[in-house]
Amino acid sequence: MKNCLRQAKISATGMYVPDHRLSNVDLEKTVDTSDQWIRSRTGIVERRIVANGQACSHLAVEALRRALELRGLAATDLDLIIVATVTPDMFFPSTACLIQERIGATKAWGFDLSAACSGFLYALSTGAQFIQTGTHRRVAVIGADVMTSILDFKDRATCVLFGDGAGAVLLEPAEAGEEGIIDCLLRSDGAGGRYLNMPGGGSLHPASAETVAQNMHCVHQDGAQVFKFAIRGMADISSELLKKWNYSVDDLALYVPHQANIRIIDAAAERLGLDRSKVAINIDRYANTTAATIPICLAEAQADQRVKKGDLVMLASFGAGFTWGSILLRWTM
Ligand code: COA
After folding, report:
1. Is residue 93's pLDDT more than 80?
2. Of 127, 146, 149, 194, which is the most exposed, with the fewest CB atoms less than 10 Å away?
3. What average pLDDT does the segment 227-250 reach?
4. Are residues 153 and 188 in the same domain?
5. Same domain flag for 193 and 140
6. Would residue 3 count as lying in a domain?
7. Nearest C-alpha neighbor of 24 from the set 46, 43, 41
8. Which DSSP category does 274 fall into?
9. In this structure, are 72 and 91 located in the same domain?
10. Which of 56, 117, 159, 218 is an active site residue?
């Protein structure tokens, strides 16, 4: 990215979570689990869940609206909308098209991108390149998921881990002298696909009474395998990126990891040698919102003034695929 004509920068953030809170204590009433088990094994205390009829695009529109408001832009100023999600409203049309229509972004085109919990980083990297080439000036990058739409609420090993939410950022060209998004390292390893997936509903196992009976339209996971790979994946790619740019963890003002499990976050920070005070954590309030965790953390960090202009910020994710990555950026707001 060093040699590109123009850098992309994040010029605004926004987030939206549904009003309804589902606490661990609420879950105790419907599945064989306990508040104590969930808190100690995952760090989650509660999660937000959608109301009936509320879908991925509804959450995304609210998050994007807030980002546009913060930046003082209209939806018609957007050139492109990229939506990272594994829970689109429907297979097609894309959620990006639904958002474009609902928010009135009449001059934008858009598409969905599927990389599970790494979706936002993949989308941010993709969006940044449209700015860098100079073909687009205002790109909305959204991470949004309604995980409760694909959970089996009888499976205690998965249903306690996830929640619903959306986060959005706007990308614009950096001003002269601004760094913005410095670099992105992204990876995938399809061998990990067997450990975390939703097998039903695609062309391999189209929806049928049988796929429903076999619970194939829900998240299936080997938690222990994902746990192990996630720590190494996030920490090692972040180290590699820091080293590439001759930075150390001491240079970071904020590290924003994907929020899947507080023990994964802590172990990755420890592996990196990073002090916990520099790590963004909100898993206690929202659980794992898949593509939305990182942009929600960014919106909260901006609202709480936890990041300021000139701060070096690093994002890191790990998810189904396996997919993982890290992005280094300079905060410019
Ligand atoms: N409540 C109570 N007990 C539960 C439970 C729940 N919600 N879920 C699982 N258990 C039980 C298990 O059945 C197991 O019981 P057993 O020993 O009698 O078989 C026991 O708790 C321990 O299970 P284990 O899988 O060893 O727990 P863990 O410490 O590995 O934690 C996860 C399980 C899922 C929290 C953890 O593996 C994890 O977070 N993995 C990564 C998940 C993830 O991040 N997914 C998204 C990818 S981005």
Report:
1. yes
2. 194
3. 97
4. no
5. no
6. no
7. 46
8. -
9. yes
10. 117
- Catalytic residue check, 288: yes
Q: Average of pLDDT values for 142-156? A: 97
Instruction: Pick the more confident residue, 4 or 29.
Output: 29
Strand order in the sheet with 312-319: 181-188, 323-330, 312-319, 254-257
Q: What is the CA radius of gyration of the chain?
A: 19
Ligand 1, atom nearest to 116 Cα: 48
| Per annotation, catalytic residue among 56, 97, 159, 258 | 258
In a domain, 207, yes or no: yes
pLDDT, position 5: 59
Closest CA to 267 of 317, 213, 231: 231
Indicate which CATH number applies to the domain containing 67: 3.40.47.10
Across all residues in the chain, what is the average pLDDT? 97
Q: Cα–Cα distance between 277 and 308 in angstroms, integer?
A: 16
Query: Residue 30's domain spans which residues?
Result: 8-173
Q: Which atom of ligand 1 is nearest to the CA of 290?
A: 48
Note whether 318 and 211 are same-domain residues.
Answer: yes
Containing 184, the helix (H) or strand (E) segment is strand 181-188
Check pocket membership of 160 for ligand 1, CB cut-off 6 A: yes
Residue 203 has pLDDT above 70, yes or no: yes
Assess whether 23 and 70 both reside in one domain: yes
pLDDT for the residue numbered 6: 82
Indicate if the pLDDT at residue 2 is higher than 80: no
Active-site annotation holder among 97, 218, 288, 297: 288
Report how far ligand 1's centroid is from the alpha carbon of 205 (Å): 27
Let me know: does 152 contact 61? Beta carbons within 8 Å.
Answer: no
Domain match, 247 and 300 both: yes
- pLDDT(3) > 60: no
In short, whether 228's Cβ falls inside 6 Å of ligand 1 is no
pLDDT at 326: 98
| Active-site residue flag, 136 | no
- CB of 33 within 6 A of ligand 1: the answer is yes
